[in-house]
User: Which sequence fits this backbone?
């Protein structure tokens, strides 16, 4: 089966390049629990995909499989033309090109904000220190916290920490960004500053896969929304179609719960 | 003082321009002084007063008796007869009432340097100074860079040359003539300098998920070594090990004890380090992985700096324990500080004054251990400062 045939398309015209991410009948189990069931999905270059679903639906597991923080047991995952296998060289290439932002920020608390940003460019990309620092500062300016560069993560608010985490990932100049519930651990007044940063990033043409419950964000930037439940992809489509005309009862139920919560 | 309306009811706002509704003020100054504190804590009730008075009386009584024994009635020196024999009559007379520090004055060189040739004892003396200098330099964070490794190599080489001699016009002194404090410092310094890195490797190996053979090896190592007393390892090193060596191959006894000591300490330290590795949140490993850091970059830059900082208290605890455990080499006849103290007591005229010797030895051990403990607390504070909220 060629990759082009597995591509299920959204509404945008399909660019000629190879897709950024292909998940092809991916299955995963924790022990005997079947957490990913035949998940197939293709993300095109520069496409912004929002993954939503109730907790325990496997959306975080799926996104973590894309840079192999979790391993899948069946099926194929191809990222930027490289298939994820046990081959460590391939994994290094993929991780270099895929940035990830976590729910709990996971900044390195013993390093300053700037050091958090320059660590990987210096050690993984072998960039000279001065150049890495310049790069780090430019991304810190982009997420609007250059003045915090010499502080430690513990001295920053949650929203600031998450913006640093985004800058840290961007410093590796990734082709794809993965967001695993980036605003779920934040106080309400800090969610906006992080979402604004993400919107800006989306508008710059970054390929993004976001696990999030922020429906406003999905409506604004997503090319496609994917709804997962109990380990499988139930429904996917444009945000307008998904939110206004959900087809399945599971999505309808989920949406009504989400909306009631807001 | 009115207790009303002092609680800030307005949630803190992030905007710098929003003026607080209630002016900020300082907390009430603590009342009283040491006297008020004592009244509250020491004389709060008749029972507490009684305990305070009783314990206070005991402390004063013992304190006075100790000062009398150690200083007031102490004998600081004794006369020597024509053949150089110490005349200990004054000490015998003061027994039980005053300390006989004359034994320390008479024997300090034996205690500090053991049987090292008397005229050459300046060499181990310099070694002791070098060791202490090495500790001090290593303790200063400003010097924590690659060159420090070089300083260690050079200093240890100089110490080796001084102790052995045989070059640069120094007479050769075989290892079995060494003794006293240098032996203790050699065992402790080499022991911890080698066992600490080894323990990190073992701890990492034990947590390895990708190399089951390495993991098994590390588990076996820790469990086997930890399962036997240090003394039995020292016996094995000194008695059994030579039996398994081919004829003519003879590794010196101190080295064998040193290796046994390193292996033993590493097994304990490995478990301490593993505790630190486990305490680190999983997210730290994942963030490092997601950035594409290799295993050793992740370990060296992210995991160990945090994990080791977490375990400074138990690490230093183990260090202090092993510094004192070096004295167990007494059992296999290596002449460390404690052994030389015992040998000093073997002379008939001094035999009755073991308390003084042991007090002196305790002071030396205490000085080193207390310095370690004090330093580690300072280090914790200093390293904590950066990440404190």
Assistant:
């Amino acid at each position: 089966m060629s990759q082009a045939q597995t591509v299920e398309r959204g509404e945008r015209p399909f660019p000629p390049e190879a897709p950024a991410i292909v998940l092809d009948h991916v299955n995963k189990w924790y022990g005997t629990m079947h957490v990913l069931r035949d998940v197939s999905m293709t993300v095109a270059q520069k496409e912004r995909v929002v993954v939503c679903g109730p907790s325990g639906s496997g959306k975080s597991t799926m996104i973590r499989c894309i840079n192999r923080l979790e391993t899948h047991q069946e099926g194929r995952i191809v990222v930027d033309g490289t298939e994820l296998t046990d081959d460590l060289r391939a994994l290094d290439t993929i991780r270099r090109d895929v940035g990830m932002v976590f729910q709990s920020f996971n900044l390195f608390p013993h390093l300053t904000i700037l050091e958090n940003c320059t660590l990987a460019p210096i050690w993984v990309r072998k960039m000279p220190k001065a150049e890495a620092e310049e790069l780090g500062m430019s991304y810190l300016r982009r997420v609007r916290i250059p003045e915090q560069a010499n502080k430690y993560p513990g001295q920053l608010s949650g929203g600031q920490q998450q913006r640093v985490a985004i800058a840290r990932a961007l410093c590796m100049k990734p082709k794809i960004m993965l967001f695993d519930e980036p605003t779920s651990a934040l106080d309400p007044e800090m969610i906006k500053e992080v979402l604004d940063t993400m919107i800006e990033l989306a508008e710059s043409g970054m390929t993004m896969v976001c696990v999030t419950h922020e429906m406003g964000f999905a409506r604004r930037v997503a090319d496609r929304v994917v709804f997962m439940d109990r380990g499988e992809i139930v429904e996917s489509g444009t945000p307008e179609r998904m939110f206004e005309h959900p087809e399945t009862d599971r999505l309808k139920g989920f949406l009504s719960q989400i909306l009631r919560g807001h | 003082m009115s207790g009303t309306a002092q609680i800030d009811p307005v949630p803190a706002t992030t905007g710098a321009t929003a003026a607080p509704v209630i002016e900020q003020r300082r907390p009430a100054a603590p009342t009283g002084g040491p006297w008020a504190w004592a009244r509250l804590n020491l004389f709060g009730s008749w029972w507490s007063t009684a305990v305070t008075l009783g314990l206070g009386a005991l402390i004063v009584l013992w304190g006075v008796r100790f000062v009398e024994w150690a200083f007031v009635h102490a004998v600081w020196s004794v006369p020597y007869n024509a053949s150089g024999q110490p005349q200990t009559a004054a000490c015998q007379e003061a027994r039980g009432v005053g300390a006989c520090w004359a034994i320390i004055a008479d024997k300090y060189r034996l205690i500090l340097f053991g049987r090292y040739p008397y005229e050459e004892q300046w060499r181990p003396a310099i070694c002791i100074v070098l060791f202490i200098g090495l500790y001090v330099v290593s303790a200063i964070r400003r010097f924590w860079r690659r060159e420090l490794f070089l300083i260690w190599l050079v200093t240890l080489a100089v110490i080796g040359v001084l102790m052995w001699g045989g070059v640069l016009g120094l007479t050769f002194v075989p290892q079995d003539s060494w003794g006293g404090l240098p032996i203790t410092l050699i065992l402790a310094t080499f022991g911890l300098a080698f066992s600490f890195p080894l323990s990190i490797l073992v701890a990492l190996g034990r947590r390895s998920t990708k190399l089951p053979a390495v993991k098994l090896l590390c588990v076996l190592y820790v469990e086997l070594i930890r399962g036997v007393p240090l003394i039995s390892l020292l016996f094995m090193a000194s008695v059994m090990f030579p039996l398994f060596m081919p004829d003519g191959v003879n590794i010196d006894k101190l080295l064998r004890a040193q290796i046994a000591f390193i292996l033993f300490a590493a097994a304990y330290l490995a478990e301490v380090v593993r505790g630190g590795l486990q305490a680190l949140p999983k997210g730290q490993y994942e963030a490092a992985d997601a950035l594409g850091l290799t295993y050793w970059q992740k370990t060296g830059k992210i995991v160990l700096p945090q994990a080791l900082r977490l375990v400074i208290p138990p690490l230093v605890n183990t260090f202090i324990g092993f510094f004192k455990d070096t004295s167990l080499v007494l059992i296999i006849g290596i002449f460390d500080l404690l052994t030389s103290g015992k040998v000093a007591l073997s002379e008939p005229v001094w035999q009755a004054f073991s308390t003084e010797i042991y007090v002196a030895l305790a002071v030396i051990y205490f000085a080193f251990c207390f310095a370690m403990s004090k330093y580690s607390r300072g280090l914790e504070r200093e390293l904590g400062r950066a990440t404190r909220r």
